[in-house]
Amino acid sequence: MAAEARAATPVDRAEILDALLTSVFVLDAELRVADLNAAAQTLLGLGASQALGRPIGELLRGADLLAALLERALARRGEEIVQRELTWQEPAGAERILACAATVATLGAEIRLLLEIEDITQHRRRIRETALLAQLGGSRLMIRQLAHEIKNPLGGLRGAAQLLERELLDPALREYTRVIISEADRLAGLLDALLGPGRPPSKQAVNVHEMLERVYRLLRGEASPRIAIDRDYDPSLPTLTVDPNHIIQAMLNLGRNALQALESAAADGARLVLRTRAAINVTLGAQRHRVVASIQFEDNGPGVPPEIRDTIFYPLVSGRDGGSGLGLAIAQDLVTRHGGLIEFDSAPGRTVFTLSLPMDVE
User: Fold this and answer.
1) Total-model pTM
2) Which domain holds residue 339?
3) CB 3.0–4.6 Å: which of 223, 235, 258, 299 could bond 227 by disulfide?
4) How many CB atoms lie within 10 A of CB 324?
5) Interval 315-334: pLDDT, tens
6) In this structure, are 63 and 82 located in the same domain?
7) How far is C-alpha 305 from the geometric centre of its chain's CA atoms?
8) Residue 121, SS3?
9) Distance, CA of 106 to chain centre
10) By CB neighbour count within 10 A (0-12 exposed, 13-18 middle, 19+ buried), where does 195 fall?
11) In terms of domains, do 154 and 61 share one?
12) Domain check: are 271 and 146 in the same one?
C-alpha cells in the first residue's frame, strides 16, 4: 500500500442543487425565500438577488392551493405534503401546471421549509395531445359510418320528391316538395362536410400571414360591427408547406366559432385577436419539432361550457343552440392531415384556440 490515499473532493451542495431539473426553494418561518436553485430561478424568470427575501406567495402569485400546502406542511412537521397538480399563471400570461412537495427541516435553532416544484405542463400537454388524437381517430370512423348510412336513403328521398313535384298541379303543393328537396340538399352538404375532403393535401409553400389576411377579411365581413377583430402577427415566421385551402378552412372554422361565441355573449368590448408566434421544441403527437407555427384565435367571450370540454372536437357536439357541431371536428381533421394539432384553453373572459403546424418538415 505504497500509494497514498487521495483526499475526497468536498461536495458543493449548491452545485448539486443547481444541477437538478426540479425547482427547489428554501423558505424561512415567514415563508420568505432564503435560498433557491437555478431551476427555481428559471421557473420564476428572476435572478437569485431578485427573489431572496421575498414571500413565496408574492413570487408565485395566483398559484391556487400553494398557501394551503405550505400551512399543512408547517402544521405536520416531518411529513412530506404533496400537491399533484397546482395551476399557476406566470407573469408572461402562460398557464403552468405544477407538482409541489413541501417538507419542514430544522437547521440548528431555525426552521426551514423545503419546497420542491416540478413543472409538469409539457407532460400534461402530451397526455392531452394523445387523447385528442385518439378522439380524432374515433370521430373519423364514426362520422364516415354515419354519413354512408344516411346518404343513400337521402338521395332516394330527394328523387321521390322530384317525381312527386312533377305530378302536382297545385303550385302551393309544389312548395312543399321544394322544401323537401331543399332540405335534402342541405343534409347532403352536411354529410359531405362530415366525410371531409377525400383527396390528400396539395401542399405548397405559402405565407401564413397571407392566409390569415384572407381569413381576417372574411371574418370582418361576417362579424357584427360591435366586435373588434385585431391582428398580432410575428413577421419573422417563415413560409409553411401546407395545402392553403385546407388550412384556410380550418382557420375560418376557428374564427367563426369565436365570433359565434362573442355574438351569444352580447357584451360590450367584444374582441377577437388573430395572433401568430413561433414555438420552439414542441411535441405534436409522437413527433418532436424544432420549430412550430402557433396560430391563435383568442376571444373574450363566455368560454367553452365545462360539460363539453372533453368532447368539443367530436362531431355533432356544440355549445350553442342551433350549432351543427362540425366546425371544430373538421378543422381538427384538416390540421392533423398536415401533422399539426388544435388545442384550446378556456375560461370566462378568455378563450384561446391554438392551431400548431410544424415548420421543419415538408
Assistant:
1) 0.57
2) 204-358
3) 223
4) 14
5) 665 656 555 567 788 888 88
6) yes
7) 15
8) helix
9) 43
10) middle
11) no
12) no
